[in-house]
Structures are given as structure tokens and as C-alpha cells.
Amino acid sequence: MFIISLLGMLAIFFAYLWWKSEVNSGGFECRAKMHVNMAVNICDRGYSDFDIFLSMQDNGLGYYMVLGAYTCPNLPPKVVDSTFHFTYKKNGQYYFLYLDKRESGVSNMIKIFKDDELKIKINKIDNYEYIVYLPFEQPMICKQD
User: Which residue ranges form the domains of the chain, and what is each CATH number?
Assistant: First the structure.
């Protein structure tokens, strides 16, 4: 009887480990950071200089943090320090991000944040790194924790 109980406990233990690995492998999760200099969305000959941080969790939620400044000719620079959340869904090779409300300075500085939906492509490099193709010119490297 002892051996049967022990085998039953081992079977439950291994079933739990298998279930835990299935739960943890079900989604995509990573963090990324990028420094960008680009033209401003709201004026001619304006420019912006900012850092952008991306966090995507495996539950379909994520957030962007944007910290930087933008300027237009003959105007003082405007500083932007903002965090906004999004939900995302995968469709084929692309991820569609549905952005929550953002402060106007973010969309003034970065034109891709004007719209409420953002389409990005993510390619896996290895087990812990991904390339995130934003509508910018340069991609981000996203690392899984």
C-alpha cells in the first residue's frame, strides 16, 4: 500500500510540473529599451530626443514608458515623461497593440502613438531575445526575464 501511495504522489508531482511548464510557456514576455532621435510630428524642422521602454507580459498586457523632449523652431523644448498601458493580441506574424489613453505630448513627439492601434512584428532570435519591429526605422531588441 505504501508503494502505491508513493507512486500516486510521484504521479501527481510530475503532473503538476508538467502543468506548470505548460502555463509558463503559453505566452510571450519581454522588456526592451531604445534611444531615438527623430523628426517631431507637429511642426516643420522640429526634432525629438527620447528613450522608449517596452514591457510585454504573457497575459496580453503591457506598457510603454517614454521619457524625452521635443522642440519646434523658436519655441522652448517640451519635456515628456509618460507611461501608458496597452493590451495586445497576436494575429499571424504580427502583434496588434491597443493603446490606452496617452498624454498629447507623447503623440506630438512620436507620431506612431497618434493612433490607438499599433501593428508590430516580433521575431525570435533565441530562447531569451526577440527583435521587435516597430514602425520606426530601427528595431528594438527585447529580452525575456
Answer: 30-143 (2.40.128)
